[in-house]
Design a protein that fits this description.
By secondary structure, this protein is α/β, with parallel strands linked by helices. Helix content is 38%, strand content 26%. The chain is built from 5 helices and 5 strands. A 5-stranded mixed beta sheet has the order 2-1-3-4-5, covered by helices on one side. Helix 2 packs parallel to helix 4.
Length: 208
């Protein structure tokens, strides 16, 4: 009986050692800290959410303080200009989530109360599909008809561009966001603006 218990103990110990050896190697512990979502945090020096927020606010403030909006309202009995926002395209040398930034700009426009913002092209396609589906399946009292969309008076679009310079130990990242507003009917540009961001990044020699 003693021998059988000893054999069983050895077998269990060997199995435990095998399971440990087959498991993932020990790694550094993970620490998570929740911070204010409005806090500016720069880790890599690349474009981040704080850049998107600052540029969006500066752009929309400059755009809405420009005479084009007041001129339009004066010529159209106080009617708010209707704006369609196209994606702010990334033409930089790094990956930037253009949709995140575009939505920051769109939110600032909507919340300003000084313009009417209509759905983007992709969003409009979804709404058109919804109305087509309603035409087949919704009741007569609730169906929404096609051909009732609000046409834009102006189209807004833009680009994010970068120009970087580096020497050993330091890098300068320069971002230029350019945006413009164009009359939908005449193609006349009524507003343009560039907003720069520049960062100096210093790294230890071993990181280069």
């Amino acid at each position: 009986m003693m021998k059988s218990n000893y054999v069983a103990l050895v077998a269990v110990t060997a199995l435990a050692l095998m399971l440990i050896s087959c498991g993932p190697p020990p790694g550094p512990s993970t620490s998570v800290q929740r911070i204010n979502p409005n806090a500016a945090v720069d880790l890599s020096g690349e474009w981040n959410d704080e850049d998107a927020r600052q540029v969006a606010q500066a752009m929309i403030q400059h755009c809405l303080n420009n005479p084009w909006a007041m001129k339009f309202k004066a010529e159209h009995d106080g009617k708010l200009p209707v704006v369609r926002l196209y994606p702010i395209r990334n033409r930089s040398s790094e990956h930037i989530n253009w949709m995140f930034f575009t939505k920051q700009v769109e939110m600032a426009l909507v919340n300003s109360g000084q313009v009417t913002v209509v759905a983007s092209y992709d969003e409009a396609q979804t709404n058109r599909f919804e109305r087509a589906d309603q035409a087949r399946h919704a009741s007569d009292s609730t169906v929404k008809s096609q051909g009732q969309e609000q046409g834009s008076d102006f189209v807004m679009n833009g680009y994010i561009l970068t120009q970087n310079d580096a020497v050993e130990g330091q890098e300068v990242r320069s971002y230029i966001t350019t945006m413009e507003l164009t009359n939908s009917e005449t193609n006349a540009k009524v507003w343009m603006y560039n907003h720069p961001i520049k960062k100096v990044i210093t790294r230890a020699a071993s990181e280069w």
